[in-house]
Specification:
The chain is of the alpha/beta class and 429 residues long. 36% of the residues lie in helices and 17% in strands. The protein has a domain of 187 residues: NAD(P)-binding Rossmann-like Domain (Rossmann fold).
Amino acid sequence: MNPSTTALTRRQFIGKSALAATAFTAAGHVFAQAPAIGSGPLKVGLTGCGGRGTGALKNFIDAAKILGREVEITGLGDVNHEAALKTGAAHNVDAERCFTGFDAYQKVIASGCDFVLDATPPVFRPTHFAAAVAAGKHTFIEKPVAVDPEGARSVIATGEVAKTKGLACVTGTQRRHTASYLNQKAAIDAGAIGEIRGGIIQWNGTVPWVRRRNEGESDARYMAKNWLAFSETCGDHIVEQHVHNIDVACWFLDRLPVSALGFGARMRRETGNVYDFFSVDYDFGDDVHIHSQCRQISGTYTRVGETFTGAHGSLYGGGKINGKEVEIPKLTMDHDNGMVQEHVDLIRSVLDGKPLNDAKRIAEVCAVAIAGRIAAYTGAIVRIQDLLEREDSQFYNLNLSPKAEDFLKDTVVAPAEGVAPIPGAANKK
């Protein structure tokens, strides 16, 4: 990691983040309030036309249909020109509305949309969220929303601006919009397993994909293309992927952990600088510990899920509960796929004039995942408030570089591949 050399006080940082929208006015964006949504098509723009982005767009369209609304795609943006054009062709969007480059998000925001779907690599999301809110857009942001402490605090601050403007912000944590998990949360609250005393959360899988560098490809283009392999662009897989399970733990326990202590290593990766696995102990206080375990190694046993043990029983996330019989309210869902339901909830909240705002919640959960990564990288115990509140902490400004603005300025210098943090000191004879 590359700690930032510029220290900001919390007040200065929140002030800068909350006023970030003003900077976009100078760049041609209007610091606007929430758009008035009429009876016509819902106008949406997408930034990030990869698999998750095109999936989110389909989810949004399916959600709109459930609510009896048509959709107009006003703009598509991606660093990859072919990806933007391919998505445009699939949705009958004219080529002139398919924007490319690291500034494509600005063009999408200015394309006349009311909703912005952001599925760009995580490093860009705090900046893109600030720009969308500055322009008065409702947002859907894929998780994670940040890769470092500064980014997490920025999203919290921008979320507060969104509240003052009546803007909705929903994030891609679909378990919170899935019936099986919602029913489990209601059962926990009703005392089905008693107070949670511990558990284990896991995302043990394989490397999703590997992308090689082309001859003559710039550092910026290569890192954006192979973003999953670099901590600086994805936050490492404990942040990018395992954040789903971490979110469930924080949700079911109704609080953030106090601290993280863990380890991990890199042994088999072919590109980038991320770890192969993490094992982190999250201390939630009151003698409650959750073991966080994640790995991306091919040829190994795979398991994704959460298990919690309470004073009177146990449960498997989204599955079986072994505990007391309790009565919970009957839950009515619009769709059995949480990735569609989260868009239904986003759109409905806007149409009802009661905009949802996930910004603070997801930014704090991302900070929990980031704390786990820092703990493994450094060998230190990391308190969550070290990242969110304690300006005197050595971790408060432990931020990653390059950042989103470096890609815009074309000043990106990629870190060395195959070099990962090694905590501690060598043994001496």
